[in-house]
Design a protein that fits this description.
The protein has 15 helices and no strands. The protein is mostly helical. The chain has two domains: 91 residues, no CATH class; 259 residues, Heme oxygenase-like (Heme Oxygenase, Chain A), CATH 1.20.910. Helix 1 runs parallel beside helix 3 and helix 3 packs across helix 4.
Length: 360
């Protein structure tokens, strides 16, 4: 089997829930009780990794785990308990807009002085921070658009046709070398990062796992199809201006031509996608099922909430000069800094600095 088709290795657990799920996937132990999920931090490392492990069985799976484990009824029962804990917390914690029009309107307004990750990287990010950003985002971008494809059988008419058109672009318009996941792997190569699927899972903080898990949660449940459309709208509407800043960050830090191209591509593509999603996907869905407007709004709000949590994690660490990852990245394997030297960063800090970075 080709390396790019082989599932990744199971990661080390991060607590009792993920330890039990990992052991079960290895055929070496019982699953946690569904009740155990209700006592866990819904956004913490343990629950989010356990949920991620369950969801990945519907994508590439893991090395050594039989494919039919995807539909193991006991594992699905545990997954449902993890999902219930996560979803209940999101409904309680996500700041709610009063209406879908208000939520969409807020997405269309660019703040005069932005303080997000793309603003930071554009203005003063260093190459080691760009590498960390790419590593954590690889959990999604190496399967970009896959979670959203789950919604296609749940849509009809205008919404289905428009969603399929956007997905066609995400999957390269029929050209393998233009598939966005492939373009992101090229970006990672420019940055000297291992492009293996799932390679950076162990380094990624819980905040990133939650962002990726939200897509799978919405995509795998027909009753949450409206929330998935809301999530997709948030991603597409905010992507173009953020991609413009990230493209500039790639140029300024000397990340490489493929790194620049990935975000340049998204500036143009997502500016078009934003219009299609708002007018055709959302408009088409509401024409068929107007009662889903609150679910679309919830998808937008929950996505913003989790992205804000991830941004705080990254920016709090970076502004303090520390890694935002659970473990430092290795030095670049191919791409040097513009001056020919490997970029300095937390991977070259003292052991004490690295220890502190793991608990940020």
């Amino acid at each position: 089997m080709n390396d790019h088709l082989r599932g990744p290795q199971l990661p080390p657990p991060r607590g009792p829930l993920s330890a039990a799920v990992t052991a079960c996937l290895r055929g070496a132990g019982p699953l946690p009780r569904p009740a155990d999920a209700q006592a866990a931090d819904p956004y913490g490392d343990d629950l989010q990794l356990a949920l991620y492990l369950c969801y990945e069985l519907h994508y590439r799976g893991f090395a050594g785990v039989p494919p039919d484990t995807e539909w193991d009824p006991e594992l699905l029962r545990v997954r449902a308990a993890l999902e219930h804990r996560f979803l209940t917390a999101l409904r309680a914690d996500s700041p709610a807009h009063d209406s879908l029009d208000e939520a969409l309107g807020a997405l269309l307004v660019e703040p005069a002085e932005g303080t997000g990750v793309s603003h930071f990287l554009c203005a003063r990010g260093e190459l080691w921070q760009v590498r960390e950003y790419a590593a954590v985002r690889s959990l999604y971008h190496l399967k970009e658009a896959d979670p959203h494809a789950w919604v296609l059988p749940r849509l009809w008419g205008r919404a289905k046709a428009a969603m399929a058109a956007v997905e066609f672009d995400e999957f390269g318009g029929g050209r393998a070398e233009r598939v966005h996941a492939r373009l992101f792997a090229d970006l990672m190569t420019d940055l000297g990062l291992d492009t293996s699927y799932g390679r950076h899972l162990d380094a990624a903080p819980a905040e990133m796992l939650a962002v990726v898990n939200l897509m799978s949660l919405f995509g795998l449940h027909r009753e949450l199809r409206g929330a998935l459309v809301g999530h997709f709208a948030e991603v597409e509407i905010t992507s173009s201006p953020a991609s413009r800043r990230l493209a500039e960050a790639m140029r300024r830090t000397g990340a490489g031509p493929a790194a620049e191209f990935f975000y340049d591509e998204h500036v143009e593509a997502d500016a078009v996608h934003e219009q299609v999603v708002r007018h055709e996907v959302i408009g088409g869905l509401l024409a068929e099922e107007p009662e889903l407007a609150p679910d679309i709004t919830f998808g937008i709000d929950a996505t913003e909430y989790l992205e804000d949590r991830l941004a705080r994690r990254l920016l709090d660490a970076w502004t303090a000069g520390r890694s935002a990852l659970r473990k430092p990245l290795p030095a670049p394997v191919t791409s040097p800094a513009p001056d020919g030297r490997a970029p300095r960063g937390p991977s070259q800090e003292t052991p004490r600095d690295q220890e502190m970075s793991h608990t940020s």
